[in-house]
Protein backbone atom coordinates (compact mmCIF):
# COMPACT_ATOMS: atom_id res chain seq x y z
CA UNK A 1 0.00 0.00 0.00
CA UNK A 2 1.24 3.51 -0.82
CA UNK A 3 1.34 6.60 1.30
CA UNK A 4 -1.84 7.81 2.94
CA UNK A 5 -2.24 11.31 1.55
CA UNK A 6 -4.75 14.05 2.24
CA UNK A 7 -5.40 16.80 -0.31
CA UNK A 8 -6.99 20.08 0.74
CA UNK A 9 -8.40 22.14 -2.14
CA UNK A 10 -9.76 25.45 -0.96
CA UNK A 11 -11.02 28.69 -2.43
CA UNK A 12 -14.24 30.32 -3.59
CA UNK A 13 -15.45 28.99 -6.96
CA UNK A 14 -17.56 32.15 -7.39
CA UNK A 15 -14.49 34.40 -7.37
CA UNK A 16 -12.75 33.73 -10.67
CA UNK A 17 -9.27 32.33 -10.21
CA UNK A 18 -9.91 31.67 -6.52
CA UNK A 19 -11.51 28.47 -7.83
CA UNK A 20 -8.10 27.00 -8.72
CA UNK A 21 -7.73 24.93 -5.53
CA UNK A 22 -11.19 23.33 -5.75
CA UNK A 23 -10.82 22.77 -9.51
CA UNK A 24 -7.51 20.99 -9.07
CA UNK A 25 -9.07 18.89 -6.32
CA UNK A 26 -11.97 17.94 -8.63
CA UNK A 27 -9.52 16.72 -11.27
CA UNK A 28 -7.68 14.71 -8.63
CA UNK A 29 -10.87 13.13 -7.30
CA UNK A 30 -11.91 11.93 -10.77
CA UNK A 31 -8.43 10.60 -11.53
CA UNK A 32 -7.99 8.89 -8.14
CA UNK A 33 -11.04 6.73 -8.82
CA UNK A 34 -9.05 5.05 -11.60
CA UNK A 35 -5.98 4.53 -9.42
CA UNK A 36 -6.90 1.73 -7.01
CA UNK A 37 -3.47 1.64 -5.34
CA UNK A 38 -3.66 5.23 -4.10
CA UNK A 39 -4.80 5.98 -0.56
CA UNK A 40 -5.86 9.59 -0.97
CA UNK A 41 -8.51 11.52 0.94
CA UNK A 42 -9.77 14.82 -0.45
CA UNK A 43 -11.15 17.78 1.46
CA UNK A 44 -12.80 20.74 -0.30
CA UNK A 45 -13.85 23.95 1.39
CA UNK A 46 -13.86 27.72 1.00
CA UNK A 47 -11.08 28.03 3.58
CA UNK A 48 -9.11 25.95 6.07
CA UNK A 49 -10.86 25.65 9.41
CA UNK A 50 -9.89 24.19 12.75
CA UNK A 51 -12.08 21.14 12.14
CA UNK A 52 -9.88 20.17 9.20
CA UNK A 53 -7.05 19.33 11.61
CA UNK A 54 -8.73 15.97 12.17
CA UNK A 55 -8.22 15.17 8.48
CA UNK A 56 -4.46 15.18 9.13
CA UNK A 57 -4.63 12.24 11.56
CA UNK A 58 -3.12 8.97 10.36
CA UNK A 59 -1.77 10.53 7.16
CA UNK A 60 1.72 10.20 5.72
CA UNK A 61 1.55 13.40 3.63
CA UNK A 62 -0.66 16.47 3.31
CA UNK A 63 -1.00 18.88 0.40
CA UNK A 64 -2.77 22.24 0.61
CA UNK A 65 -3.85 23.61 -2.80
CA UNK A 66 -4.96 27.21 -3.24
CA UNK A 67 -4.85 30.14 -5.65
CA UNK A 68 -2.32 32.89 -5.02
CA UNK A 69 -1.87 36.19 -6.81
CA UNK A 70 1.69 36.60 -5.53
CA UNK A 71 3.29 33.29 -6.50
CA UNK A 72 5.20 32.82 -9.73
CA UNK A 73 3.35 31.28 -12.67
CA UNK A 74 2.31 28.59 -13.16
CA UNK A 75 2.58 27.44 -9.52
CA UNK A 76 4.81 27.24 -6.47
CA UNK A 77 5.37 24.12 -4.38
CA UNK A 78 6.87 24.56 -0.93
CA UNK A 79 7.03 22.61 2.30
CA UNK A 80 5.18 23.94 5.31
CA UNK A 81 5.86 23.25 8.97
CA UNK A 82 3.77 23.83 12.10
CA UNK A 83 3.75 27.48 13.06
CA UNK A 84 1.69 29.67 15.29
CA UNK A 85 0.53 32.74 13.42
CA UNK A 86 -2.36 35.12 13.86
CA UNK A 87 -4.70 32.86 11.87
CA UNK A 88 -5.03 30.33 14.70
CA UNK A 89 -7.35 32.78 16.50
CA UNK A 90 -9.68 33.25 13.53
CA UNK A 91 -12.18 31.12 11.66
CA UNK A 92 -9.66 30.65 8.81
CA UNK A 93 -6.33 28.90 9.38
CA UNK A 94 -3.11 29.02 7.40
CA UNK A 95 -1.63 25.61 6.56
CA UNK A 96 1.17 26.15 9.12
CA UNK A 97 -1.31 27.09 11.84
CA UNK A 98 -3.43 24.05 11.02
CA UNK A 99 -0.38 21.82 11.46
CA UNK A 100 0.38 23.53 14.78
CA UNK A 101 -3.18 23.03 16.03
CA UNK A 102 -2.91 19.35 15.09
CA UNK A 103 0.33 19.07 17.08
CA UNK A 104 -1.12 20.80 20.16
CA UNK A 105 -4.52 19.10 20.17
CA UNK A 106 -3.38 15.56 19.41
CA UNK A 107 0.09 15.61 20.99
CA UNK A 108 1.40 14.03 17.78
CA UNK A 109 3.49 15.40 14.97
CA UNK A 110 1.45 16.20 11.86
CA UNK A 111 2.46 14.56 8.59
CA UNK A 112 4.98 16.19 6.27
CA UNK A 113 3.02 18.90 4.48
CA UNK A 114 3.30 21.02 1.36
CA UNK A 115 1.52 23.98 -0.16
CA UNK A 116 0.82 24.07 -3.88
CA UNK A 117 -0.02 27.67 -4.78
CA UNK A 118 -1.49 28.15 -8.23
CA UNK A 119 -0.98 31.57 -9.78
CA UNK A 120 -4.25 33.44 -10.21
CA UNK A 121 -5.01 36.88 -11.61
CA UNK A 122 -8.72 37.64 -11.28
CA UNK A 123 -10.56 37.19 -7.98
CA UNK A 124 -13.68 39.32 -8.37
CA UNK A 125 -17.08 37.89 -7.49
CA UNK A 126 -18.76 36.45 -10.58
CA UNK A 127 -15.58 36.32 -12.67
CA UNK A 128 -14.80 33.23 -14.69
CA UNK A 129 -11.44 31.50 -14.64
CA UNK A 130 -8.86 33.56 -16.54
CA UNK A 131 -7.04 32.02 -19.53
CA UNK A 132 -3.74 32.27 -17.63
CA UNK A 133 -5.26 30.47 -14.63
CA UNK A 134 -6.50 27.68 -16.92
CA UNK A 135 -2.93 27.17 -18.18
CA UNK A 136 -1.61 27.23 -14.62
CA UNK A 137 -4.22 24.67 -13.60
CA UNK A 138 -3.09 22.33 -16.38
CA UNK A 139 0.57 22.67 -15.32
CA UNK A 140 -0.29 22.07 -11.66
CA UNK A 141 -2.35 19.04 -12.64
CA UNK A 142 0.69 17.50 -14.36
CA UNK A 143 2.72 18.05 -11.19
CA UNK A 144 0.00 16.71 -8.88
CA UNK A 145 -0.28 13.43 -10.79
CA UNK A 146 3.47 12.95 -10.48
CA UNK A 147 3.40 13.72 -6.76
CA UNK A 148 0.54 11.33 -6.07
CA UNK A 149 2.10 8.48 -8.02
CA UNK A 150 5.29 8.84 -5.98
CA UNK A 151 3.96 9.52 -2.49
CA UNK A 152 7.34 9.77 -0.81
CA UNK A 153 8.28 13.10 0.80
CA UNK A 154 11.76 12.75 -0.72
CA UNK A 155 10.26 12.74 -4.22
CA UNK A 156 8.06 15.73 -3.37
CA UNK A 157 11.10 17.59 -2.01
CA UNK A 158 12.84 17.15 -5.36
CA UNK A 159 10.10 19.19 -7.03
CA UNK A 160 10.04 22.13 -4.62
CA UNK A 161 10.08 25.55 -6.23
CA UNK A 162 10.18 27.65 -3.04
CA UNK A 163 12.01 27.04 0.28
CA UNK A 164 10.29 26.01 3.53
CA UNK A 165 7.75 28.48 4.92
CA UNK A 166 8.62 31.09 2.27
CA UNK A 167 5.74 33.25 1.17
CA UNK A 168 4.93 33.64 -2.48
Provide a descriptive summary of the structure in words.
By secondary structure, this protein is α/β, with parallel strands linked by helices. The protein has a single domain (4-157), classed as 3-Layer(aba) Sandwich (Rossmann fold). The chain has four helices and five strands. The protein has helices spanning 20-32, 95-106, 131-149, 153-157, and strands spanning 4-10, 39-45, 61-68, 75-80, 113-119. A five-stranded mixed β-sheet has the order 2-1-3-5-4. Strand 1 (4-10), helix 1 and strand 2 (39-45) form a beta-alpha-beta unit. Helix 1 crosses helix 3. The protein starts with a strand and ends in an 11-residue tail after the last helix.
Question: Secondary-structure blueprint of this entry?
Answer:
Elements: E1 4-10, H1 20-32, E2 39-45, E3 61-68, E4 75-80, H2 95-106, E5 113-119, H3 131-149, H4 153-157
Parallel strand pairs: 1-2, 1-3, 3-5
Antiparallel strand pairs: 4-5
Helix pairs in contact: 1-3
Number of helices: 4
Please provide the count of β strands: 5
Tell me the domain tally. Answer: 1
Order of helices and strands: EHEEEHEHH
Strand content: 15-25%
The quaternary state of the protein chains shown equals: single chain
**Rounded radius of gyration (Å):** 15 Å
The main β sheet shows up as:
5 strands, mixed
CATH T-level fold name:
Rossmann fold
Q: How would the global form be characterised?
A: globular
Highest-level CATH class: Alpha Beta
Mean pLDDT: 89
Helix share bin: 25-40%
Amino acid sequence: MGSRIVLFGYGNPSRGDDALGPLLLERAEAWIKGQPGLAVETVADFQLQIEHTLDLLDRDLALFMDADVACPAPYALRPVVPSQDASYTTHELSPGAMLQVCRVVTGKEPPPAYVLSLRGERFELGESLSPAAERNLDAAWDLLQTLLLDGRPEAWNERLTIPENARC
